[in-house]
Amino acid sequence: MTLDPKLSCRRCTNNAAVFISRKEPFCRECFVRFLRGKQRKQMADYKVCYDPSTSAPQIPPKILLALSLSESSLSLFEMLVSLLHEQRKMHRGNSGFELFVVHVDQSNVYPYPAGMEPNTILENIRQNYHDTCTITCTPVDDFFADARTGLQFIHDASDIAEYSLLEDQALDSKITVSDLLTNIRDRTSKLDILQIIRETLIFKTAKELECTTILWGDTMSRLAEKTLSLTAKGRGSVIPYLLSDGSRNDIHNIYPLREVLRSEAEEYINLLDISKYVSKPSIKTPNVLRMMTIDDLLGNYFADIEKGFPSIVSTVVRTAAKLTDTVARARYACALCGLPCDDESPERWLQDITVNQSAPTADSTCEQDSIGVVKDRQRPIICYGCLIATKGASFPWISTIASSKEAVLDEYELH
Ligand SMILES: [Zn+2]
Ligand SMILES: [Zn+2]
Q1: What ligand has the least distance to the C-alpha of 29?
Q2: Does position 402 have pLDDT exceeding 80, yes or no?
Q3: Residues 6+ away with beta carbon under 8 Å from 181
């Protein structure tokens, strides 16, 4: 953007403006401070704490940043590094958190531009930031790495009720995420399942590294897109659970950029000269409207909206935040996405609404025969969104909710 050189920053009224955001001209320093302020507000709890009795600094919590190498995740990375530097300077080398970074490498699924492969980029980042963080790179195929302990099942293409355990069948370790995705025809569903795999790996890494918090780089624009796309994909019930800050899988989740627009994150990395680290797999967006995924369409929509009417973006996100979370305490978790599922069997509900007889009452769906119950419940529970996403597909999967068949059966017996 070329600005009038006479235009000065409205905050300091001294320096020349370099960027206009939300109709306000900013100089470089004021803009950087403005965005960092928004991130720090969301992470106010992560300051240096001292033990009241000994005055010694407390051991800082380990936090994991999910770094997708997009503009927004990189800007959050830089903000965290700058916060760490500042804390160390002011607290004689102590900090309010210990920073871990994870990137899920999808190069086996989608090619990256030459020379911009995640390993190369991450190595460059490591060289410059090794004193502030530990960086891990997880190949997307690690999803199938611990197949021996995973719960495996297949979705029979002919009948939505035919999700079943593949008992005793050793999962071939050569199964790749790419294989799995070729079983799914619809592009929206393909990317939806890929996102579930990425998030599963990020949670797994957090547990392995004993991190108590995961930071997600989603901007306000991205959260608005997700709100609408989750609704369109039949995953509306998990919006408050998924997009609010809070505990998921016993790990605290924060979206520190929830008040930052995507265009602001993009400008931030340009001003701080870290745009050279941006690396995205080349997932081609088709030009034909009918071929676009829901996320493509919403991405375009919000990119236009945030230029002229940023308040619409924040209205969507704030409205989503006001929704009541009805699923967090749900009894069941979907075997595919691992998200809470408030209905024991959406597939049964789907069948009930498509046949010409009244739906059975809640009581009659529950088998009295104890053997029958166990038998019936060996079938994994799949949420409505995953049923839709995997319709017509047939593939193996590693359950995100249980590590062994015994654990699954034990859990069922407790209910
Ligand atoms: Zn200024
Ligand atoms: Zn699901």
Answers
A1: 1
A2: no
A3: 109, 190, 193, 194
